[in-house]
Amino acid sequence: MKNRILLVGYYGNGNLGDDLLAEVSIRNLIKSGKRVSFTRNKPLQIEKEEKITPVYSRSIVSIFRAVISNDIVMFSGGSIFQDVTSTRSILYYAFIALLALLFRKKLYLVGQGVGPLNSDLAFTLTRYIFERAHHVSVRDRKSYDLVSIWRQNDDVQFIPDLVFDFKKDDEILKGNNTKKVGIIVRDIPGLPTELTVDYYINILQVCRKYTEHLLLIGFHYSHDKELINSIISRYDPNLDVIYPNSYDEAEGVLTTCTDIVTTRLHGAILSMICRIKPCCIGYDKKVDMLAEEYQLPILKEAMYGFSYQNKSTLESYLKENNTMLNDANQLTENKLVLDKYLATLFDGKEEKVSL
Questions:
Q1: Residue 123 belongs to what H/E stretch?
Q2: What is the mean pLDDT of residues 273-282?
Q3: Options 3.40.50.150, 3.90.230.10, 3.50.50.60, 3.40.50.2000; CATH of 181-326
Q4: Buried-most residue among 6, 134, 179, 235 (CB within 10 A)?
């Protein structure tokens, strides 16, 4: 049995969602008796709690040595095979995957969201890698349909996003009787910065009609800070702002809210885990698909600005009771599917699971 695994992802860069993906993966790999190395930029909290080997993600020499010295190279969660945020990013991850294939390491692509792939080069590289991987699972229907065509067989698995694994059994979370709206922000691709600030100010203005208790939340400090500072300087310098750095911190923040408006995918997932139905901001297909799957309200096509229809959708959302106590069964099912999938991933059986 192959015990040495190199975990690859956008880890240690201050993005809460990606760091949670690393934590879920590392804990499950250690539970199954694996020796784990993982790529990261800055240290993660889990390094203090588990016996794992960090590999500096910006050192090609370190990456090269780590690929050679491990049995399996595993890309876990996220949307790293896309070229919207950066062309350099997909070339970097493609390089590591191709290196693994070159040295005949088993390549695992776990819980992936594929695309958008706008350039021919990105599409060709991604297809080549996914066709040759030892194991592939994806987190959304469009990725499943695309990768199933590439692999021309039935060995692609469709699983929930790995962050759903943070749901605790028989979890009872403290509610908040005072209406409070948390707004999880990020830049909106295709929308200039000034118009992005306008977009969030429009949301704040609508929310303030229903409550004075508003909170801006950033999941990626280095990327979100400038945007948030611009929002509060133009709207209200006294607005509360917080940047959670862990699951426990995020849970502590979200459970003080009665409503969550979120641009980030993992902001929506964590909100559901905390039993709050989120209102999504549709800046990307992965958010659109999550909203469709879980029947969540969504402010569509954010890249075109804040529309009258968006205003109407948001107002309807804020008038509702957005506690999700009656939706716990789906969250429990997601965790059961993930636990079953992760438990059999490396034991040679790789039992099929499905949503």
A1: helix 120-132
A2: 95
A3: 3.40.50.2000
A4: 6
